[in-house]
Write a structure and sequence with these properties.
With about 80 residues, the protein is an all-alpha fold. It has a domain of about 55 residues. It is built from three helices and no strands.
């Protein structure tokens, strides 16, 4: 596996549905100006990764099966 520092970017397609999609839409609409979904996802992902770096958590990546089955993932402590 190559070092992540040599990556400059990639197009990523994400499918969201159910409660996760609703939460994303609510977050977008709560901004002073409704932002594009792609921008919202980048912002929220950046914040989550920064939180993990600050707290020293490695984090758990949900399995594809969990995502496909649309099981509710446990919330991180302190998440609202």
């Amino acid at each position: 596996m190559s070092d992540s520092s040599d990556l400059t970017g990639a197009a990523v397609q994400v499918r969201l549905d159910g409660p996760l999609f609703t939460e994303l839409e609510n977050w977008r609409r709560a901004q002073p100006k409704i932002v594009p979904r792609s921008w919202a996802l980048r912002q929220l992902l950046g914040r989550a990764l920064a939180d993990d770096r600050r707290s020293g958590e490695l984090g758990q990546c949900p399995s594809i099966t969990t995502i496909r089955d649309n099981k509710k993932m446990p919330r991180r402590s302190g998440a609202n």
